[in-house]
Design brief:
single chain; about 450 residues; mainly alpha; globular
């Protein structure tokens, strides 16, 4: 039965759009910047310019991962390129047709279009019901999206691809869902975590497509093996920094790695995954420590992945929407997750609200907490903390009491951990989602 005419939901959507416009206005005037670590401490567009520089390296036939922090001839402050070659050649190279700042604002505009598209798709997949309108409204009031646009990240492109993949899983449609997933794997690669769900759905052609796209990227690394070592180290050293990856950057590979102060590299107010909670809490309690003791991160990763695999393959009639959410959440429990990365959680939250009534209370509670800013601004205000000098090897958290560091890093991963636990328990125990979750063909858009 359609109930999409309920006026309260449409008023909620209108209010959400208003909040979104207010939020985006800060990109021009900066009135929200102090609420978030990245927008407070980093230069605007820094991540976008890092990817833009990857395209520039490709055009000038340099290694994609070449990095020179002093070269500001094309872009302002930027970080090293850290993604697969495909993103540089397919997306960053065309963006180099424009000057850096023009390309940045074009990318912001593209993401705004994707945001409206995602809200529309969410509304449609929810059969245009009242809760589908609520789920659509969720896209407009998610503060990590502001951080995403401020730094110019590409995580929201991933969020769009993940939404299409999630809808495909919900409706048992491999063509759109599987292709979107395969493309996402070579865009930012974090969605490779969804491979067990794709295998459980028997989307073998999609897995073959993803493998083929990865092999195509491998051709680049065959020609530049040093770049492959660098790619692995740059993306996985915080998890496997116990001797499994012994790649050592050369002087100049990264501006910070030539300095012996490793604490500065690990103690960051911008990270908000479960591993960051453990690491930053440990460093806050021990001012002489430089990192989390070796092996703890691997234990956490193995536990989360092992339990998620059990929830995926143990049930005889799995709920693919729940599995999609479980493995999307697993990223934030097992990897380095910055605040803007949480836009990649939005597809799972929106689909659960639109399609799974039994999960709505816990999902909405998780959404509200994750959608709000962290206590970053309040902690700085309460402790009278200001940003350290630009080149100082010390972070803002060094001025915070230990309880503030723990609270700041707990507010996002803990709700995600709770949601992940509930969904896993539902799949393993067949207590949630069975009746409305396994008949995926019934969820097709009418």
């Amino acid at each position: 039965m359609r109930d999409g005419s309920a006026s309260w939901a449409w008023w909620l959507l209108a209010a959400a759009v208003g909040v979104h416009l207010f939020m985006m206005g800060s990109l021009f005037w900066g009135y929200l910047d102090a609420l978030f670590d990245n927008s407070h401490s980093l230069a605007k567009g820094v991540d976008f310019f890092s990817i833009y520089e990857g395209g520039r390296n490709a055009l000038e036939n340099r290694p994609l991962y070449h990095f020179d922090a002093t070269d500001t001839s094309a872009t302002p402050d930027h970080n090293p390129y850290r993604y697969l070659p495909s993103l540089a050649y397919v997306v960053a190279v065309p963006l180099n047709a424009l000057p850096a700042w023009s390309a940045y604002w074009l990318w912001v505009s593209v993401n705004e279009v994707l945001l409206v598209l995602n809200a529309f798709l969410t509304w449609r997949v929810g059969r245009c019901t009242t809760w589908a309108v609520v789920a659509a409204a969720m896209w407009f009031v998610f503060t990590p999206f502001y951080v995403e646009m401020y730094v110019g990240q590409f995580s929201f492109l991933m969020a769009t691809l993940l939404l299409v993949a999630g809808i495909g899983l919900a409706q048992a449609r491999e063509l759109p869902g599987g292709v979107a997933w395969a493309v996402s794997v070579v865009s930012k690669s974090s969605s490779a975590l969804l491979a067990p769900v794709v295998a459980r759905a028997r989307w073998w052609r999609s897995i073959a497509l993803a493998a083929g796209l990865l092999l195509a990227n491998g051709l680049y690394y065959l020609a530049r093996p040093r770049d492959f070592e660098y790619f692995l180290w740059l993306n996985f050293h915080q998890i496997f920094d116990v001797g499994l990856l012994d790649f050592q950057p050369r002087a100049g590979d990264l501006r910070y790695f030539v300095d012996p102060d490793q604490r500065f590299l690990q103690f960051s107010a911008g990270e908000h995954g479960l591993l960051a909670l453990f690491r930053n809490s440990y460093l806050a309690l021990d001012s002489t420590a430089t990192d989390l003791p070796g092996g703890i991160s691997i234990v956490i990763v193995v536990l989360v992945l092992g339990i998620s695999l059990t929830a995926t393959f143990l049930p005889r009639r799995p709920d693919f929407v729940a599995l999609f959410a479980i493995w999307t959440a697993a990223f934030f429990l097992t990897y380095t997750a910055w605040e803007h990365h949480y836009v990649m959680l939005l597809p799972a939250l929106a689909l659960l609200v639109a399609l799974r009534p039994a999960h709505r209370p816990i999902v909405l509670a998780t959404f509200i907490i994750v959608a709000l800013p962290t206590p970053y601004w309040l902690i700085n205000l309460a402790t009278d903390t200001s940003l350290p000098p630009a080149n100082a090897l010390v972070t803002v958290q060094e001025s915070w009491p230990a309880w503030a560091v723990v609270l700041h890093h707990a507010v996002k991963p803990i709700p995600v951990l709770v949601l992940w636990t509930v969904l896993v328990a539902g799949q393993v125990g067949h207590r949630f989602g069975t009746d409305d979750g396994v008949k995926n063909s019934a969820d097709r858009i009418s």
